[in-house]
Specification:
With about 375 residues, this protein is an alpha/beta fold. The chain contains 15 helices and 8 strands.
């Protein structure tokens, strides 16, 4: 349990509104996590349209002594333009979470664009000052960009104690995510790594039958998702692996194999690499459903939901045509259609995966409208 963190980004919902979190179910999941020895919770200002922090307060802070858990929160650099916004948001986050200090506090989703803002408004200086005041125990940043940008930030700011990176076996050698290169860069700078998206937004829990067969023949009792979490947790410089658990079953599964964590051996490592090759050839759009792209979309297009439908359709093609079209229409009743994209580019500016979202939306519209 030392390496499993509870990511509060994909919590159970009461309905299809992402802000309507099922608090009672979250309480049960938090209880199971803490009872099993888990302590590390991770939230952020925009998660669940701002409700994740409040739910953490109700489910954990009000029900457990402060010393029994740690909480990570993040300063949303993608929506900050002025220095005076930082203390306002920071104080609001303390209030939302119901705590007097954060155990870990990151600058959220740094990359080449946001780093310019970080430097201009003195964001590292701000969180360093909060650490001196006792409002933060440890500082760092989460990161979505290339290894050379990461190297620059860590060289400029050795005060950063940790780096949060997207690492999973599908992205390990990906040329845009550069998971391996970023991991090696953080390690070279002596910074422990916290892993986000180990299951790639759930994509590595539901994989092609050929890849699934490899895992099931090796370990019939282990879930498909467990291979992805164990892969990330097996890396020497990984301190914590976050899992954005959405229901009790996912929580129970993670606790089952992480209570007595066993790193991947050589044969298992090779098996994962084989599975990655199979999966890589089956995913049409490598979206992790982080939902950063939705905020500010002038047409209210449900981008990750459409991409999910499209990926399922492309994997099974003709067998799924009717089902995919039906799901697409259900989503479109409440949201903008893919074809309504005006190509403003706001979504691509906020996408951690650097996906050509506008082009993908055209593909989705062509197939499913």
């Amino acid at each position: 349990m030392e390496k499993l963190g509870f990511g509060l980004m994909r919590l159970p919902l009461k309905d299809d509104n992402f802000a309507h979190i099922d608090l009672e179910r979250v309480k049960k999941m938090a209880d199971a996590f803490i009872e099993a020895g888990g302590t590390y919770f991770d939230t952020a200002y925009p998660y669940h349209e701002g409700k994740s922090e409040e739910v953490f307060r109700e489910a954990v802070v009000k029900r457990y002594p402060r010393e029994s858990f740690t909480i990570t929160d993040k300063l949303p650099m993608f929506s900050i333009t002025r220095a005076e916004q930082m203390p306002e948001i920071f104080d609001e986050q303390l209030s939302r979470c119901g705590v007097d200090y954060f155990d870990y506090y990151w600058l959220h989703a740094l990359g080449s664009r946001s780093y310019e803002t970080v430097q201009r408004i003195g964001a590292f200086e701000f969180i360093s000052q909060k650490k001196k005041e006792g409002k933060i125990r440890h500082i760092g940043f989460s990161f979505h960009d290339t290894a050379d940008v990461l190297d620059r930030i860590l060289t400029d700011h050795p005060e950063a104690e940790y780096v949060q990176l997207q690492i999973n076996y599908l992205d390990w050698e990906d040329s845009s995510v550069q998971a391996r290169e970023c991991y090696e860069t953080a390690t070279r700078h002596g910074k422990p790594v916290i892993v986000m998206e180990p299951i790639k937004g759930g994509a590595l829990a539901s994989i092609p039958e050929k890849a699934e067969k490899l895992f099931k023949e090796k370990e019939p009792e282990l879930s498909i998702a467990s291979w992805a979490v164990r892969y990330a947790a097996s890396l020497d410089n990984v301190m914590m692996v976050l899992s954005g658990m959405s229901n009790e079953e996912q929580m129970e599964d993670n606790l089952r194999y992480m209570k007595d964590f066993q790193p991947l051996d050589g044969d298992e490592q090779r098996l994962v690499e084989q599975a990655a090759d199979i999966i890589r050839n089956s995913i049409a759009i490598p979206c992790t459903a982080c939902r950063y792209c939705i905020k500010g979309c002038p047409k209210g297009i449900a981008i990750p939901d459409y991409f999910d439908v499209y990926n399922v359709y492309m994997r099974f093609r003709k067998q799924q045509k009717g089902h995919a079209s039906g799901r697409y229409k259900d989503i479109a009743r409440k949201h903008g259609r893919a074809s309504e994209c005006i190509r403003c580019g706001l979504c691509e500016n906020s996408c951690p995966q650097h996906l050509p979202i506008r082009d993908y939306l055209q593909e989705v519209a062509a197939e499913l409208e």
